[in-house]
Amino acid sequence: MTSQVGRGSSDSPGDVLSNPQCPTGRLLDRIGTKWTSLAVRVLAEASPQEVRFGELQRRMPGISQKMLSVTLHNLTRDGLVTRRVEPSVPPRVHYRLTELGLSLEAALAVVRAWAQEHMPEVDRANELSSRSGPTDS
Questions:
Q1: What percentage of the chain exceeds 90 in pLDDT?
Q2: Which H helix or E strand runs over 8?
Q3: Residue-by-residue DSSP string for 36-73
Q4: What is the chain's Cα-based Rg?
Q5: pLDDT > 70: what percent of the chain?
Q6: Which stretch of DSSP H or E encloses residue 133?
Q7: DSSP class of 87
Q8: Cβ–Cβ < 8 Å for 15, 5
Q9: Which stretches does DSSP call E strand in the chain?
Q10: How many CB atoms lie within 10 A of CB 3?
Q11: Can you tell me the distance from the alpha carbon of 11 to that of 20, in angstroms, rounded to the nearest whole number?
Q12: Which residue, 74, 86, 132, 135, has most beta carbons within 10 Å?
C-alpha cells in the first residue's frame, strides 16, 4: 500500500489524516513508541545475532517485563522481529530483527538523532510554555 497523505480522496484507506481506521496510522502508533524504538535499536546492534528476553530487558533500563513482552509481541506480529523458543526448562526465548525490522531501524535512527540534536530547543520551549501558562489556539 502506498501512502495517500496529502493526495487523493479523503476516504482512502491510506489517508492517515482523515481516516481513524487507516492501517498506516495504526502502524505509526505502534512503531512510534519509545520502547519500540529502543527494542529495535538493541536488536539492530546485535544483528545478525539473537538476543534473549532477559538481555533485552537489561539493555533497556526502565522497561517492565510486561511492556517488553507486549512490545516484542507487537514487533513479532508485524513481521519486524522473529522469535525462537528453545525447548528447555525454563524455555529460552530468543529474538532477532527481520530484514523488514532492520529497514525500520534506519528510519528510527534518523528520528532518534533528530531528537538528540533538538532536545535542548524542545526543553527551552517547554520551559517557556510552563512559565507562560497553557495556550489554546
A1: 68
A2: none
A3: HHHHHHHHHHHTTS-EEHHHHHHTSTT--HHHHHHHHH
A4: 18
A5: 85
A6: none
A7: -
A8: yes
A9: 51-52, 81-86, 92-97
A10: 12
A11: 10
A12: 74
